[in-house]
Amino acid sequence: MVIRPLKSAFFKVFDSFEELKLGICKWGVPLLFFWCFFHGSCLLQTHQLRSYETQVLLQLRKHLEYPIPLNVWENNTDDLCNLSSPPHMSIKCEDDSVTELRIVGDKPAKVSEFRGFPVPNQTLSPSFSIDSFVTTLTRLSSLRVLTLVSLGIWGPLPDKIHRLSSLEALDMSSNFMFGSIPSEMSRLVKLQTLTFDENFFNDTVPEWLDSLTNLTTLSLKNNRLKGQVPSTLPRISTLTELGLSHNLLSGKLPDLSSLSNLQLLDLRENNLDSELPPLPEGLGNIFLSNNSFSGSIPEQFGKLNHLQHLDLSNNYLSGTPPALLFSLPNISYLNLSSNSLSGSLPEHLKCGDSLSLVDLSDNRLIGQLPNCLGAAAIAGYNIMVDIRGNCFSIEDRDQHPSRYCKDIAKRRSTVKEIAVLAGVIGGIIIIVAFILVVGLLVYCKKHRKQEVLIQHIAPKVKQDDPPSGISPELLANARIISQAAKMGNQSALPYRVFSVEELEEATKNFDPSTFLGEGPMGKVYKGRLENGTLVVIRSLALHRKYSIRNLRLRLDLLSKLWHPHLVGLLGHCIDGGVQDDSTIHRLFLVQEFVPNGNFRSHLSETSPEKILKWSDRLAILIGVAKAVHFLHTGVIPPSFSNRLKTNNILLDEHGIAKLSDYGISIITDETEKSEAKGDTTKSGHVEKLQDDVYNFGFILLESLVGPIVSGKGEAFLLNEMTSFNSQDGRLKIVDPIVLTTSSQESLSIVISITNKCISPESSNRPSFEDVLWNLQYAAQVQATADADSKSETTSRPSFS
């Protein structure tokens, strides 16, 4: 706004070149000073990374096991943005953040077979974790261009890659990634270039690719992708290059004519077996060789005026090729070899001025060779022509007799007729067999029903109403999914039914010396079983009378909730009632004994020898977050409202956190209360889930400030949260132990996620997956800071 008038006035003052030179001497220095005053600097602009992004880059280098291209970072950590870029590494920064990162290693994915395990001298080591690597990578939130090529990265690409929401170009070619391309990547709406060449992805080409509305280049060559080419691809109107060659794709190639911007189509080395569809008129290069395409070459191909290279070799194409193909204005390479093309080419066929290679070998073409491909071409034009293996009427060019091509055509026709007849007969046989099988099944089912009716006639038993939002069938068939399957339920503690006499013996008839306390759910005792195992016995006072049948369904569901960070449920005892329709008044739950107290006691200044440093607190918080994430997403139906408090987080002898009092709402009257409120809808479940997030936010808060400050109440803490935004405020409210044992970056990450968890608006609170991710990253940052601090301490010279 100020500079342009100044420049205009500057040149109006001097009407001649000589005056201009004198003017520069006279006025140049003052004007230069004036320019600097408004712009802040006259020097070449440089970028200084924020310290945490520098730490992220160094952590990535460690994850990648110190590749040679990154050796230049060794002694330049203070100025990574302004390093001279070697051929295999470059970094670009804007506004103190990394926007481009390119690393090309020396580990190309060239192995004959890869089974998903590390390969010595080819992949990164067995200790490499692609999940941790991507978690760290996504902290570079301003990245627009990312190239990670030939680095030996192995494993399935994690969903969390979508957190790089600013990405415009992603190239992870020549690595060892396998499995599916994550569907969460559909959120990368700014992505323009996606390149995963030379990996081992072995699922299908994603159907969601049309969500990437700015995509121009899609290259997934040299993988093991299977299935069909997605029908959604033609919707990506911005696409200019499509490369899916050297995969295992099959079936029909969809109509791509709507892709008006497409210039390159490369589908070589697949198993595509349809007829050739219409293609966009703007295409310059088409490579469809080594497939199973059949039928004739569409006449529309003769109208592709921008076409330069066309390769349809090694397919099953038939008929006579369109004459216009040879005369396209820009065609230079035409390969139609190894098909079943037949008939004769026009005698006066015209060849385009750019045509330099024509390969018609190994077909069934007959008749005279057109002048532009025959002697005239050889004599006067620079066209390489290969016509071997045909039946052209020309001598000394490796041609078959004309009858050879005609006989082949007849044999093919006969074979085709036989195949059609065989298909009809086979279809009839299949239909008859199907009718017989269906008839047999109906007959067996009818007799089975009669047997069941005879054997299972019994009086009906009246069932209680099912718990809120949970049908009896769902309770009966409740199952652990995904994460539990990965952990292996074989690790779960054995579950059994106890008698009242066994519990009385374990607690010395519930002697006061075994009494541990009383909570809102009833009294808690410590006991010792006959085999010497220490246990905790909870006596629950039920506010509603349940039938034993209903209660057993609930207990069966609760018994399936096993996780390393949940207090194990060993069994139960139902006191009162024997028959299924009886009602009971007292229920005992038998749980494993966790000996090292609760989390709150380890945050208190009253027990200084127990107080945990920051890294230990993070480990405990991560364990609890994993447990709650499992309760929300790892079981059907999910378990919400899990009484999250620091008092309910117990520590075992190894300092491992275990959450107690979880899932109790399944068997207490809270279920009925929520039912009375009509809280059985999906929104009700979301509200409960957000309640857990909110309560976990206060666990995070108590971990930051300690139980003494947190004891002043929720309203006080919410009011003091603004203090976290300044250094002085943190000194005022944060626990001194946390301040002295944490790095600023790690602390800031946890403060940020805490603020989000205790947001008054439930819709603004994060998911538990996000909470867990942030805590894990904070732990990584803290571990790096601790290692650096230890290194500095050990390397410091000592003087006697």
From TrEMBL:
Its main location: membrane. Keywords: Glycoprotein, Kinase, Leucine-rich repeat, Membrane, Receptor, Repeat, Transferase, Transmembrane, Transmembrane helix. Residues 510-778 form the Protein kinase domain. GO terms for molecular function: ATP binding; protein kinase activity; receptor serine/threonine kinase binding. Pfam families: LRR_1, LRR_8, PK_Tyr_Ser-Thr. The keyword Aminoacyl-tRNA synthetase does not apply. It comes from the Eukaryota. This is Inactive leucine-rich repeat receptor-like protein kinase. It comes from Sesamum angolense. Signal peptide: none annotated. It is found in: Membrane. The keyword Repeat applies. One of its GO terms (biological process) is response to other organism. GO terms for cellular component: membrane. The chain crosses the membrane at residues 418-443.
